[in-house]
Amino acid sequence: MKKYIILTAFGASESAQKTYHFLGAHFSSRFPDARLLWSISAPSGARPTSGRATGQDDELAKVLADLPADVQTRCIVQSLHLTPGLEFHRSVRAVQAHRTGTAIGMPLLSSQEDFHRLVDLLSPLLPNSSDRGVLLIGHGTTHPSWTTLPVLEHLLRGSTRSQVFLAVLQHFPDSSMVIDRMAASGVRHWLVIPLLLSTGIHFWRDIAGPGPHSWSSRLQQHGLSPVFHEEGLGTLPGIAEMFGDHIQTAFDRTIDQT
Hints:
Blueprint: E1 2-10, H1 14-30, E2 34-41, H2 60-65, E3 73-79, H3 86-98, E4 102-105, H4 112-122, E5 132-138, H5 148-157, E6 163-168, H6 178-184, E7 189-194, H7 201-207, H8 215-221, E8 225-228, H9 239-257
């Protein structure tokens, strides 16, 4: 029985590469009988180049087409996206168009249990103090999956004494009034956590950068003092296990289908 795990993600920065290698090493250890392949959506077309992660092309359709058309082949396409948004559904369509009998591993936040697990994993980072706040900043999307983020914000607020706000870099959920609400809370010191798989250009330029339109500059313009958590979610302890559980669930579905 041949097993393949195709990992799909977006972004090809140096930080993203390190995160992919970290996650790939975990999956290789947990699923030693499966071969890891990669499909990375990024303008540069870069992808992991070491270890067992060996993609032949960044287009998922090409990776799928290169697999053996063998009834003894079990294949999982595992999304490394945080929510089931536009990129995830493009992957689903590619699988449906090019290969039958392939199971889809769901993104990080796909079930009620996933939300609670992520809250538990983030809890050690939170100050849990009424005079310290937490701002989480994600990417944002036009896909209806943006509605998952207010749910996460609600659950995080119930897990700590700190003020918690969630914002995005673009699109939805609307973040235009977040800084005003932070300032109105009376809290001046804020921990800023990137709700991103890795800390690439979006973090260093758009969130923590010195430019006048970055979140760092805008927070300071409102009299707020930010401190930045400089690691993405991908290397947070427990995240690789969550993705690994999604892979295992997908493999279990391929067994049920045989």
